[in-house]
Every structure is written in C-alpha cells, then in structure tokens.
Write a structure and sequence with these properties.
single chain; mainly beta; Immunoglobulin-like; Ferric Hydroxamate Uptake Protein, Chain A, domain 1; five-stranded mixed beta sheet; 3 helices; 21 strands; 10% helix
Length: 281
C-alpha cells in the first residue's frame, strides 16, 4: 500500500513538472502565384532551451505542423530553395488556442554572374509590394497586445507613427498627419468600403466600436502617405484589411462577452476528409 502511494505521488509530480505546450500549423505559399510550396523548412529556435530548434517541413499541399511548442513568445523562420528567407514577428503561443499561419514567400532572382544583395524581409513591412515608405503591416496578435486597442485595428493604428486620435477619445477616429479623418480610406480585400464602425457620425471615418471582429482578420496594411496608385481616392491614409483563412484541420468555436457586447466565432474545415478548404465566421 505504501509503495502504491509513493508511485502515485511520483507520477503526479512528473505531470505537474511538464511545461504547457501548443501546436503551430500553417500554409506556405508563393506570394505571386499563391501556389503551395512543397518541402519548405519551418523552424523555431527556443531561446529558453539553450537555443534548441524544433521544426517541420511542408507536405504536398504546402501545410506544416509543429508539435509541442512551449508556451511563450517565439520567432518562426521559413526557408525554401529559390526564395527569400521569411522571419515572423514575435508570435504569442498560448495553451488556449493553437496558431494557424499563412506564410507568403517571395521568389529570389539570380541573374548571370552578378551578386544581388537583399535585406531580409521584416514582418512589419506592408504586404503591398508598392508600399515602399509610410506603410506598415500588422497582425491580429499585435492588435490584441497594444494597450487600449480593445481588439480594434483602428485604435491600434493610433499608436503608430503619423497617426493621432481626434478630439473624441471615446472613438477610434484616425487623424493622419493633421489631415481630416474623412480622407481616410477603408478597404477590405481590395474593395473600398464605407465606415466599418458602429455609432459612427455622418461623414466620419471612425466610430465607437469596430464592426469587424479581430478574429476573422489576417495581416493587414496601414498607410500614412505615399499611397500606391490603386488607392486613388485616399487623401489622408489607407487602412487595407484582409481576411484570414479558417482552421483546415479542427473545428473551433469562440465565445466572448464584455461591456461592449457579445461575440461568437466559428472556424474549421469544410470537409473532414479533404482539408484543403475551410470556413470562418
């Protein structure tokens, strides 16, 4: 009886000693053709574990999965022959929900015997290739980390250089370099949209609460100047929002309630056998 008690206590101690971990999955694509890249290498270097590296390679559909990633903040690196190395911003890994990423890699060119020196791509660079200056890309994870953003891309943008809040601090109206907030252009998947905020005033580009859930958005761009030609109607700034892809492997549900409202979200594969497509709402 005493031996069984000791063995039980030892097993319980080992369970408690295990550090929480999570899984990271994702899709690696060619940025120009949107075709999946087969055999791309995805690696995470664990600074907290003496630099130990864990990783995976993409399958025939360009999908990768990294198991038992310790909870915390990590950098993720992706390399592929003939493409520029891709390095992520800080990824916040929690035990509550796995991370699902979409990585778009840029093909590198080698011409004759010349040597082309290129700086590594920074995750904060705008995804629009014509946004060379006064442009910044941001992720939903960044929006959640910024103080006072309340899961709102508009309020997060107020913390970026060149943007400031209007006279009403209870709204997310963006003033870009002292221009009128009416000149801010909102775009969703390349299409110009009206003010995407609740409780908005007529002729304004902001409001009290964003009508778009942060959990359905992906990496988006914010421009404060030098707009590409496609944003012809923009006078002060551009907020170019993008949707993210849903989970292709497991169905997930999210329920959130607070002082500003109730929110429900769901995502998962459309088919349990073919996991090449997904839904998200």
């Amino acid at each position: 009886m005493l031996l069984r008690l000791c063995l039980g206590m030892l097993a319980f101690t080992q369970v408690l000693a295990q550090s929480p971990s999570q899984r990271i999955t994702g899709l690696v694509l060619d940025k120009a053709s949107k075709q999946p890249l087969i055999g791309a290498t995805v690696i995470i270097k664990l600074e907290s574990d003496a630099g130990r590296m864990i990783g995976s390679t993409t399958d025939s559909n360009g999908i990768f999965s990294i198991e038992e990633v310790p909870v915390g903040r990590h950098f993720l690196n992706c390399t592929y022959v003939g493409y520029q190395p891709w390095v992520s911003a800080y990824l916040e890994v929690t035990s509550a929900k796995k991370l699902d990423l979409t990585i778009e890699m840029i093909e590198s060119a080698t011409v004759g015997d010349s040597i082309v020196v290129r700086a590594p791509r920074v995750a904060s660079e705008a995804s629009n290739e014509f946004g060379l200056v006064s442009a910044r890309s941001f992720t939903p994870e960044e929006t959640q980390r910024y103080a006072g953003s309340i899961n709102d891309p508009g309020r997060m943008a107020l913390s970026l250089p060149g943007a400031q809040i209007s006279t009403q601090d209870n709204e997310n109206t963006i003033v870009v370099r002292a221009n009128s907030p009416i000149g801010l252009s909102w775009r969703l998947e390349g299409f110009e949209i009206p003010n995407p905020n609740h409780f908005a005033e007529a002729g304004s580009s902001g409001g009290g609460i964003s009508a778009l859930s942060i959990y359905v958005l992906g990496a988006s761009d914010f421009f404060t100047g030098a707009f590409p030609a496609e944003y012809g109607n923009a006078l002060a700034g551009v907020m170019d929002l993008k949707f993210r892809k849903g989970n292709r492997e497991d169905r997930e549900f999210r329920l959130q309630t607070g002082l500003i409202g109730l929110e429900f979200a769901s995502e998962g594969p459309l088919s349990r056998t073919k996991k090449s497509s997904s839904y998200l709402f």
